[in-house]
Amino acid sequence: MTSDRHLPVAIVGGGFSGTMVAAHLARKGIESVLIDGAGRAGHGVAYSTREPAHVLNVRAEVMSAWAHDLDHFVRVAEADGGHRRDFVQRQQFGRYLRGILKDTIDSGCLRLVERQAVEAEPGEDGWTLQLDNGEELRASGLVLAIGNQPPEPLPFGRDSSRVIHNPWSGDAQAAVEDLAASNEDVLLVGTGLTMVDAVLSLDAAGHRGRIVALSRRGLIPRGHTDSARHRSPPRTYRTVMSERSGAGSASAARKSAGARPSTGSGRTATASGRAFRCTSRRDLPVTPGPGGTFIVIASPRKSLSDCKG
Ligand SMILES: Cc1cc2nc3c(=O)[nH]c(=O)nc-3n(C[C@H](O)[C@H](O)[C@H](O)COP(=O)(O)OP(=O)(O)OC[C@H]3O[C@@H](n4cnc5c(N)ncnc54)[C@H](O)[C@@H]3O)c2cc1C
């Protein structure tokens, strides 16, 4: 793409990808407009969580936003009292990314438009975008950085307020708070990293009811093999599961990190115990009843596939 210097490049989506495209363009003196309609510019879905228990799934030392400066994020984490080997809070990475966004805006090369893009038409000299407030925006080039779209609702419980289809929505946050107040049982559909986040959110909110996670393959995420060396470990889902199942202390749970916690091959996978049970079913014949809230977790998380077994 050759940039027409009279018109900016339009970037739709202000998560990590959109923010960094804008930052790279600004470094080359190319103007852009970053369009994000969810109020998440500079955070995206992953780093807009406010829950301290939600941590990065890799260490700080591999999270630099800049390929030419691999310790860029480490310096930020260390300035906050952290360590390069830490799994820091995702909201801290969000602040880091938001800082890059602010620097890019301050450079004069980027304008932020907090609207939803609803249409884009190519023309002879670029693109015309329609925003959800009816405004039109012309651009020399178009970058789609819209991330994963919200999950399709599953075929059950579409009309029930007790079934939460998008684990990253405001409804999911409200459900966590309601469940913490009522201590009702929860069914989590799926056993990947989003399940881990949901368990941590429920636990941090004070929920002490039963949590059942439903899996098609009976696999749950594996720990990092050397997490026993981790400095000041956060409250991990392994800790939470261990405590809830009465399987041992937090330190025993941490020592077991790295062990493969799943049975594989579609059998019932552990985390046996009183409060947390992970069940493997290929079909999902789930009907929401009056006695429990279902948080349906169906978001594609292919980039986070360390739950493969
Ligand atoms: C819960 C979670 C945790 C994760 N943890 C990690 C981690 O620890 N380490 C790691 O490396 N990766 C992690 N990831 C992967 C992470 O998503 C990617 O690394 C990266 O942040 C994806 O950024 P993105 O900009 O492509 O998408 P997103 O962050 O999804 O951003 C897309 C943005 O586009 C906006 N948008 C969409 N459509 C429109 C439209 N029509 N108009 C305007 N705006 C629009 C959305 O509002 C959103 O803000 C995680 C992902 C999730 C979901």
From TrEMBL:
Q: Which organism is it from?
A: Sphingomonas sediminicola
Q: Where is the FAD-dependent urate hydroxylase HpyO/Asp monooxygenase CreE-like FAD/NAD(P)-binding domain?
A: 10-149
> Which Pfam families does the UniProt record give?
NAD_binding_9 (PF13454)
State what protein this is by name.
FAD/NAD(P)-binding protein
Residue spans of biased composition, Low complexity class: 242-262
InterPro entries given in the database record: FAD/NAD-bd_sf, HpyO/CreE_NAD-binding, L-asp_N-monooxygenase_NS-form
Residues annotated as region Disordered? Answer: 222-292
Output the PANTHER family linked to this UniProt entry.
BLR0577 PROTEIN
Could you tell me the superkingdom of the organism this chain comes from?
Bacteria
